[in-house]
C-alpha cells in the first residue's frame, strides 16, 4: 500500500489547527461594532430564544472559532463533542450569553453550545440578552430607537418596521384610543400594555395580514407592510380625509377603528377579507379594416380580456375587460393605463372609448 505525504494535514497536526484556509465570512468583532455604533447604554432583555443565524460575532474570541463557531484548534473538540452528546441525549443546556447591537448578536459565553446546536440542525438557541443601544446619529439608528421605545412601551415582542421617523406617535394614539374604548366598555380598567396587546391581536395584526396577502407593498418601493398599515389606518381612523381612490375600502375597513375590530375579532387569519377587487368595463374600438383580424388575435391572447365582439355600425369592436385592483388604486388610472398599454399602442387601432358600468344585472342561463 502506497503512502502519500500530505503537507497540509501535517502542518495542521503539528500546530493543532483544524482549518488552514479560514472561514469565508469571519466572525465580526464585537469591540469594533460597539465602537462604530457608539453602543454603550445597556438594557437587560432577559432570556429568550434567538435565531442562530442572527448571531454574527464574538466578544474577544474571534481567533478561536470559525464562522460556524466551531473551535479552530483540535484540542477543544473534546468539549464540543461532550456538549453535542448531551444535547442528543436531551439534557437541558444553560442559556448562552449574548450582547445585542440592533438586530445582531455577539456571543460572550457559550461558543461550544452554539457550534453543537448548529451541527445538530437547530435553528434557535436559548440566550440571556443584554442589548446595547446605538448612539451614533443616523436615520437608521433614529428609526431603530423609536421602534425599540415603542415596542418596550407597548410590551410587544414583535417589532413594527416603519421607514420614516416620528410616526410611532400615531400607533400610540391608536392604542390610547383603544384603551379608552376598553375602559368604557369593560368591567375593569386596563393599562397601556394590556390595551396594546388587544390592539395588536384584534386590529393591527388583522389589517397587516390583509395588506400582506394583497401584495400591495410591491407597488411601493422602499416601503414596508407596516408603512402601509400606518398609511391606511391613519386615513381611515385619524385623518378622516376625502379620497379620490379606493372605492370600496370603507366597507372593508370601516372609518371607525372599533367597528373594524368588531368585524375581525372572531375571524381566523384564513377568514380575513381580500383587499383586491375586480373591476369590469367595456371598450369600444375603431380599427383599420386590414388589421382587424390581427388586432382581435392580440387582444384575445390577453388574460384580462374576457370577450371581443366584431360589430357593424360606427364601432368596429366591443371588448369586455376584467381587472384586479387593490383598494388603494384609482379606477380611472388603472383603466387608462391598461387601455393605453394593451389597446391603443396596437398597430391599426384608430381610437378607443371606455364604458364603466354603474348598476349591472346579469342573467344566469341554464344549460
Write a structural description.
With 367 residues, this protein is of the alpha/beta class. The protein has three domains: 7-136, Conserved hypothetical protein from pyrococcus furiosus pfu- 392566-001, ParB domain, CATH 3.90.1530; 140-271, no CATH class; 276-355, Alpha-Beta Plaits, CATH 3.30.70.920. Helices cover 40% and strands 20% of the residues. It contains twelve helices and ten strands. It has helices at residues 7-15, 30-37, 77-88, 111-119, 139-154, 168-185, 192-214, 225-239, 249-252, 257-264, 292-300, 331-344, and strands at 28-29, 41-51, 55-58, 96-101, 104-109, 124-133, 276-287, 305-310, 317-326, 349-355. Strands 1-3-5-4-6-2 form a six-stranded mixed beta sheet, with helices on both faces. The protein has a four-stranded antiparallel beta sheet with strand order 8-9-7-10, covered by helices on one side. The protein is elongated. 22% of the residues are buried. Residues 1-24 have low confidence and may be disordered.
Structural class: alpha/beta
Q: Give the proportion of residues in helices.
A: 25-40%
Sheet of most strands = 6 strands, mixed
Low-confidence stretches: 1-24
Strand content: 15-25%
CA gyration radius, whole angstroms: 30 Å
The rounded distance between the terminal residues' Cα atoms is: 84 Å
Mean pLDDT: 84
Topology summary:
Layout: H1 7-15, E1 28-29, H2 30-37, E2 41-51, E3 55-58, H3 77-88, E4 96-101, E5 104-109, H4 111-119, E6 124-133, H5 139-154, H6 168-185, H7 192-214, H8 225-239, H9 249-252, H10 257-264, E7 276-287, H11 292-300, E8 305-310, E9 317-326, H12 331-344, E10 349-355
Parallel strand pairs: 1-3, 3-5, 4-6
Antiparallel strand pairs: 2-6, 4-5, 7-9, 7-10, 8-9
Helix pairs in contact: 3-4, 6-7, 7-8, 7-10
